[in-house]
Amino acid sequence: MKKIMIFLLLVVASSHLIAATPVWHTSKVNWIYPLADGSFVLTFKEQNSGCTNNSNYFYVRVGKNSVTEAALKNMLSVALSAGASGKTLNVNFDADTPECYVNRLFISY
Fold first, then answer.
1. Which distant-in-sequence residues (6+ apart) come within 8 Å of 99 by Cβ?
2. Is residue 39 included in any domain, yes or no?
3. Would the pTM of this model clear 0.70, i.e. be above it?
4. Which of 11, 15, 49, 98 has the most CB atoms at less than 10 Å from its CB?
């Protein structure tokens, strides 16, 4: 019983090391840059201090921050729609990585 309690304590104590810190950012899209591997980069008119890379790039990549291939295609479609219509895009990203990997997003109408 004591070993189980110690194990659970270690799991709980180290869980913050593997969990992403989700942060929301809301702004109009500045540009969308597709990359050769199928992923893409978003930038916004307004910067977010939670995204720590120098360029304030937000990456959307399969396998990062729980993104699947189907989700990547859907997010690209939504991002392009927001950019083309001039609407605000809301993105949820991982502030624990300098790549600011996006997990989900939506358009504000």
1. 53, 57, 59, 61, 64
2. yes
3. yes
4. 98
